[in-house]
Prior knowledge:
The chain is an alpha/beta fold. The chain contains nine helices and ten strands.
Amino acid sequence: MLFGAHVSIAGGIFNAPLYGKEIGCDVIQIFTKNQIQWKIPFLQAEDIKHFKENRLKTGVIPVTVHSSYLVNIAGPDDNVTEKSINDLACELERAEVLNIPFVVFHPGAHKGIGEKYALKSIAENINKIFSKSNSKSTFLLLETTAGEGTTMGYKFEHFAEIFNKLKDLSRIGVCIDTCHIFAAGYDFRDEKSYYETIEKFDKIVGLKFLKVFHLNDSKFPSGSKMDRHEEIGSGEIGLNGFRILVNDKRFKDMPGILEVPGDIYGYKRNIDLLRSLVNGKN
C-alpha cells in the first residue's frame, strides 16, 4: 500500500508536497480551497507550476482532492444541491489541472426525506456533475460513511444502487474509510471478519470500483454509527485489522490516506507504524 496523509495547503497549494515529504508520505490528499466555504478561488498558473515542480522534486504523489464539507447531493434543499453540483464539477476540473486523479466526497444526508429518494437524487446529481464539468479524466469517488444521522453511504448496497442509476461508470469509484465502515458495522479486526467484509464489498459493489482507502482507527465500537477517528492502533479496530489490510496483496499499489487526530508529526508516527505492519515487521 502507498501510505500518506491529508496535508495542509497553508502558504499556498504548492506547499502540499513539501509537507507530505516532511512526514514521509508516498501519497497525499488535499483540499484545493477552504473546505467550509462555497467560494471557489481561481487557481493561479504560477501556483500550479510550483505545485507540479514540488511534486517532482519530492516524489510525493498527490492522489486525492477532498471536496468541501458543505457538499450534499442527497437532500431536499435545491439551493444546497445546486451549489454542491457546481462545487464538485469545479473540483474535478481543478484536480485535473493539478494532475490529481481522484476527487473524494461524502454522498450526503437525506435530512428526513428518506433513503430511497436520496439514492435517486445522488445518482441524478452525479450525472449532472459529469455533464457540467469540463474534466475528462478525473474520477469522482464516493466515500463510505459511518451512518451518523441521516447520512448515506453506510451500506455497500447504497453504492450499488447509485451506480446502477448512473449513465457513465468510467470515472466513478469508492473510497473506503476504515473508521466509517467499522462504525457502520463492517468488522475487520481478524482474518475471518476482514475477508468477509472485503468479499461482501466485492460481491455487492465490485473491487474494481475501490480506488482509495482512508486509514483511520475508530474511537467507538463496530456498529456504533459514530464517526470519530482515532490514531492507528489506539482505537476499537486495533493493530491487527490494519496489519491484515496493509498486507493484502490486492491493495499493494493502492493509496492509503491517514485522517487521524493530532499534528503532522502524529501523522508521521502513524505512517511509520503502518509501514512497520507490512510483511510482519511489527
